[in-house]
Amino acid sequence: MVIYVSRKETFSASHRLFNKNLSDEENQKIFGKCSNPNGHGHNYVLEVIIQGEPDPSTGYVIDLKLLKTIIRENVINKVDHKNLNLDVDFLKDIIPTTENIAAGIWKQLKDKIPSGRLYSVKLYETEKNFVEYKGE
Amino acid sequence: MVIYVSRKETFSASHRLFNKNLSDEENQKIFGKCSNPNGHGHNYVLEVIIQGEPDPSTGYVIDLKLLKTIIRENVINKVDHKNLNLDVDFLKDIIPTTENIAAGIWKQLKDKIPSGRLYSVKLYETEKNFVEYKGE
Amino acid sequence: MVIYVSRKETFSASHRLFNKNLSDEENQKIFGKCSNPNGHGHNYVLEVIIQGEPDPSTGYVIDLKLLKTIIRENVINKVDHKNLNLDVDFLKDIIPTTENIAAGIWKQLKDKIPSGRLYSVKLYETEKNFVEYKGE
Amino acid sequence: MVIYVSRKETFSASHRLFNKNLSDEENQKIFGKCSNPNGHGHNYVLEVIIQGEPDPSTGYVIDLKLLKTIIRENVINKVDHKNLNLDVDFLKDIIPTTENIAAGIWKQLKDKIPSGRLYSVKLYETEKNFVEYKGE
Amino acid sequence: MVIYVSRKETFSASHRLFNKNLSDEENQKIFGKCSNPNGHGHNYVLEVIIQGEPDPSTGYVIDLKLLKTIIRENVINKVDHKNLNLDVDFLKDIIPTTENIAAGIWKQLKDKIPSGRLYSVKLYETEKNFVEYKGE
Amino acid sequence: MVIYVSRKETFSASHRLFNKNLSDEENQKIFGKCSNPNGHGHNYVLEVIIQGEPDPSTGYVIDLKLLKTIIRENVINKVDHKNLNLDVDFLKDIIPTTENIAAGIWKQLKDKIPSGRLYSVKLYETEKNFVEYKGE
C-alpha cells in the first residue's frame, strides 16, 4: 500500500531576480518589476510530499512531527526572514526563481527522509504562482 | 478523453492515536500529544477523485450530485460527529492515522462509483497535514 | 530537470446545463437545478500547469507574466462576465459542464505555450467541485 | 454577556447589472462588462451574524443548525442556482448589486431570528469584492 | 492613533455538547449529533485582537511574537490535542459551545496583555460557524 | 441605508524592521529575525472598506472598478515589488511595521474616495498577523 503524505510549512523572504551575466537593460527586459534593485518579497508556502507504506505498528508512513522538524532544520531556518540572494548557502549563485528555489529545497531534503522517500516539493510564491519538482 | 472529477466534503471527528499492543510509555513516545487518553479532534476535509470519460449526452464523467450522495451515505454519515476509535465500523481495529483513515475510505467507496472509476482519496487532517491514496 | 509551473486565474460566468436533443423533462431529471431556464453562475478558478526545463539564463520554465497574458487573451477575456452557453465561440454546441469547459480551454491553450508544454488544465466550478484534464 | 454568532452559507447565481430607466449606452458606461446582456454569475458567500446572550441551559445564543435552516429556507433556496434579475421575488425591481442583494437578504431575515437579534449581513460577490449591512 | 492588531492561532480538540442537568433525551433533542457520547472534534481557529496605539520607538502596538507566546502559554497549550470537557481547567463545568469557549479564552487573556488592551476574541469551530466576544 | 463596501488587493514587498536611533543590539533585541540586515518580505493583503449609501440609480456605494483603480494608483503601484524601507515615498522615515504601513495607506487614500467615505484599512502581513486602522 503506497500512501503520499504531505506537510505544509511557510516562510517569508525577500529576493531579486537578475542574472549577473546580463546587462541591467537585459535584466529589466526579462524580469521587469521582479528585478527591482532593492528587492521585494513573498510569503512562500512549501509543501513536501513523502511516498511510502504505512508502518503497521504506527499507521504512519512518516511521523509528521519528525517531518516538520526535518523541514524546519534543513530549509525553513535557512530561508525564513532572509534575503534569498544573499543569506542562503544552498541558493548561492542561482537566480532565485520559484523553479530554482524548489530544486534547491529538493536537494536539501532528499537524503534526510528516514522512512518513505521524497516524492515532490511544491512551492507557492503567491496563491497564483507555484511550481512542483519531483526530482526527475 | 480522460477527465479527473473531484468532490470535496468535510467531517468533524475525534480520535486518539495509540497501539493497544504497545505500553503506555511506548504509545506516548511514538504518538506524543496525539495519544491524549481523552482524545482530541479535527475538521477533516475529504477529496474524492473519479477518473473517466464524459458521457456525450450529459457532459458528465459522473453527476456530482450523485457522487456527493455516495460519499455522504458511505463515508460522511458514518464518521461525522463521531469518535473514529469507537464509533466507526469500517475503522475497527486500526490506528486512526490519516493514512489508515484514507485507506479505509477508499475501501468504502471503490465499488460504489457508477460511472468512471475511483482514482484517488485525499484526506486533510489539518491544512498542513494531509495524505493521498490511489489504491496501489 | 523537469519542473511543473502553475498559474491561477479566475473568471465569473453564467451558464445553464441542458441538452437540446432531450426533452425538458429529461433535462430536468438529469441536470436538476443546474438546468434553471434563466441560468445561474459561478466564480470559476482556472489553474494552468506547464511542464518543462528551466532556461539556465532566466531560471524560468516559462515567464509567468507571459503565461498570464496568454491565458487572459485566449481564455479569460472570452469567458469572464459572459454567458457560457451564448457568448463564447470555443464553447459553441457543447453542454457547458466543468468537464467540457476544461477540455475547451485545453484546446484554446495547447498550441500557444512558447516554452515548456501544456501539462494540465484544472477548473474549479466551486471550492467543492472541480476537474482536471491532461490532454489524454 | 453579548456574543456575536456567525453562520456562513454559499449560493451560485447569475445576474446582470442594468438600470431599465437608462439607455444602453449609459448602462454600458456605468456597469461595463457587468452589464453583459446575457448575464454572468458568481459563487456568493453569505455570512449572517446574530448578536445575543448565550442561554445558560444550552450555551447557545442561537442553535446554528436552526440558523442554517432559517437562512436556507428564507434566502438560499430562493437564490441558489437562480437568475437574480428574473427568478427572485425579494429582489424584484432592484438592480442586483451586492449592496442591494445584501439589503434584500437583511429584510428576508430580520424578523425570523428566534433568539438574539440579526446584527449584520455580509455578502461576498468574489473573494475581492464584498459588502456588509447592519440594518442602519 | 488607535490600531487593532490581530494574531491567529489554531488548536485541535474534541468535545461533547451536553448539559448534565438534563436527561439524555433532552440533550439529544437540543444538541443532536453534537451530543454523541464518545465525542467528536474540530480544528479551531482562534483570533485575538488587541487595540492600542503604536509605540513610536518600535512601531508596534504589541510585539506579535510576544502576543503569540501569551496566547500559546495561556490558551493553546491548555486546549490543543485535548478533550474540552475533561482536560481543561478554565472550561470546567461549562458546556463547551463555541460561545462559552470564546468567553473562557477572554478571561484567560484579558489581564495578560502588556501593551494595548484585549479588544476581541474570535473563535471558528469550522469555516462556517464562528463567534466573537468583546468582553461586554 | 449605510453599507460597508470592501475591496481586497495584494502586493509583494520586502522590508526590514529597525529603528535607526537605536543600536544594533537594541534593534536585534526588539525586532529579532524581522531585523535581518538584508531584509525579508511578504505577500501583503490589503482590504479597503468604504462606508456610504447606495446611489439609487446605480445601486453602488462606490463603483468597485473605480475603487480598484484608486487603490492601485495611490498604493499598489507604489509598494508592489518594492522595498518598503527604501523605495516608497509615503513610508519615508517610518519603521515599516504593519501598523505604520496601514496608517500610511490610510493617509494615501482618505481624500481620494469620490463617493462614500473611507471607513477602514486592513492589512495582512501574513494569514496569521494583521491590523486594522479606522482613522481614529
Walk me through the structure.
The structure is a homohexamer of 136-residue chains. Chain A is an alpha+beta fold and 136 residues long. Chain A is built from three helices and five strands. A five-stranded mixed beta sheet of chain A has the order 3-1-2-4-5. The mean pLDDT of chain A is 97. Chain A binds chain F through residues 10, 12-15, 33-34, 36, 38-43, 80-83, 85-87, 126-127, and chain F through 10, 12-15, 33-34, 36, 38-43, 80-83, 85-87, 126-127. β5 (129-133) of chain D pairs antiparallel with β1 (3-15) of chain F, so a sheet runs across the interface.
Q: Which strand order does the major sheet of chain A show?
A: 3-1-2-4-5
- Greatest chain-chain interface? A-F, 23 and 23 residues
The largest pleated sheet of chain A is described as: 5 strands, mixed
Oligomer: homohexamer
Mean pLDDT of chain A: 97
Task: Specify the overall morphology of chain A.
Answer: elongated
Query: Number of helix segments of chain A?
Result: 3
- In whole angstroms, the N-to-C terminal distance of chain A is 23 Å
Briefly note the structural class of the backbone of chain A.
alpha+beta
* Radius of gyration of chain A over all CA atoms, rounded: 17 Å
Helix content of chain A: 25-40%
